[in-house]
Amino acid sequence: MSAIIEIRNVTKEFRVLNRREGLRGSIKDLFSRDYKTVRAVDNISMSIQQGEIVGYLGPNGAGKSTTIKMMTGVLEPTSGEILIGGNIPYTNRTRNAQEIGVVFGQRSQLWWALPLIESFRLLKDIYMIDDKQYDSMLELYRSLVDIEPLLHKPVRQMSLGQRTLSDILAAFLHDPKIVFLDEPTIGLDVSMKAKIRTLISALNKEKNTTVILTTHDMGDVDALCQRIVIIDKGKMLYDNDIEHLKGFFGSYRTLKLRIDGDMKASAESIQKELPEFSVSADDEWISVLVDEEKAKVIDVLGKLQSSYRIKDMQLEEISTEEVIKKIYEEGVA
Q1: pLDDT tier at 281 (50, 70, 90 boundaries)?
Q2: 183, burial (CB in 10 Å: exposed 0-12, middle 13-18, buried 19+)
Q3: pLDDT at 42 (0 to 100)
Q4: Which residues of 108-130 are buried (b: 16+ CB within 10 A; e: fewer)?
Q5: Computed from CA positions of residues 162, 98, 66, 111, in that sequence, does the dihedral angle turn out positive or negative?
Q6: Could you tell me if 167 and 108 are in contact, meaning their C-beta atoms sit under 8 angstroms apart?
Q7: Mind listing the pLDDT tens digit for each residue in 39-51?
Q8: Is the pLDDT reported for residue 119 higher than 70?
Q9: Whole-angstrom distance, CA of residue 173 vs CA of residue 100
Q10: Within 13 Å of residue 76, how many CA atoms lie on the same side as its CB?
Q11: How many CB atoms lie within 10 A of CB 280?
Q12: Cα(2)–Cα(48) distance, rounded to whole angstroms?
């Protein structure tokens, strides 16, 4: 089976002016030829099959958005080759646009003053969707979410969650082969996040649509992605499923403690006592990420019991969020 997305040894470089400080420097910059080359994407390759949901992850500035822009045809790579459904996206942007859907952050493709149904009708004409397919998609949407209250509501009157849900429906409306979702649940409450994750999963299964998801919310990754790709500083660090990734960190356990006193202050104190481990805190728990190759959890707990009054404790396997954090910090051995 041929891949729907093929990226082969792709590199993207930008020429950036070395700017000077102050007014005099700004004037000199107008005539400057002092440029440096920044490599945003550095020789990455991957192959994605039809119907996959792939989490494309990395810290800010890793090169995620640059890669997505090349796949959508907005940017052309400096070197290498990208094929989207067998087409080169940046040489035939019109044809590529027919095959993809996009939801980028809070940039809505809906018409602000119009009811949602009017935006759908405009998109129907733009993408030349026939009546049968359009009616079929609306029926599918009705079966998945309670869309009727939104159809005749102007977009400007919608909540953030309603707009995001509507944008996702708009991205799938012309039945694209691939949909790119950039931080689709950012800023949403827990209930709306769950509803949108369920919607994305259902549309992926029903239409066999390939989904490329960029997110910093590990809940999105756990709920949706069968496979993750991690990049940092333009280089690919990992490309496999999440369970395989956790195998690299099988010796890690999260020790969660509830301690008398100020949790944040106690966490800072514990971090000083255990500098080799990562310690964090919220309003309820202090979390210590213990590498059992360095020390057993029972030994760490015994040491802390001698210094703190522990009211409750839990032991958890390393979370997806902690795995990704370790990858960002240390890479994969």
Answers
A1: confident
A2: middle
A3: 94
A4: bbbeeeebbebbbeebbeebebe
A5: negative
A6: yes
A7: 999 999 999 999 9
A8: yes
A9: 10
A10: 6
A11: 15
A12: 9
3-state per-residue secondary structure call for the chain: CCCCEEEEEEEEEEEEECCCCHHHHHHHHCCCCCEEEEEEEEEEEEEECCCCEEEEECCCCCCHHHHHHHHCCCCCCCEEEEEECCECCCCCHHHHHHHEEEEECCECCCCCCCEHHHHHHHHHHHCCCCHHHHHHHHHHHHHHCCCHHHHCCEHHHCCHHHHHHHHHHHHHCCCCCEEEEECCCCCCCHHHHHHHHHHHHHHHHHHCCEEEEECCCHHHHHHHCCEEEEEECCEEEEEECHHHHHHCCCCEEEEEEEECCCHHHHHHHHHHHCCCCEEEECCCCEEEEEECCCCCHHHHHHHHHCCCCEEEEEEEECCHHHHHHHHHHHCCC
Whole-prediction pTM: 0.79
One-letter identity of residue 244: H
Highest average pLDDT, of 20-24, 119-123, 160-164, 192-196, comes from 119-123
Please name every residue paired with 287 in a beta bridge, in sequence order, or none if there are none.
Answer: 256, 280
Q: Distance between CA 36 and CA 18 in Å, rounded?
A: 7
For residue 204, give both structure tokens: 């992926």
Distance, in Å, from the CA atom of 213 to the CA atom of 54, rounded to the nearest integer, reads 6
Which residue has 């602000």 as its token pair?
112
Question: How far apart are alpha carbons 188 and 167 in whole angstroms?
Answer: 14
Question: Over the chain, what is the mean pLDDT?
Answer: 88
Q: What is the pLDDT of residue 106?
A: 65
At 331 the pLDDT is 64
> In this predicted structure, what is the pLDDT of residue 29?
67
Q: Which two tokens stand for residue 151?
A: 């159809």
- Interhelix angle 160-172/116-126, rounded to 10 degrees, is 20
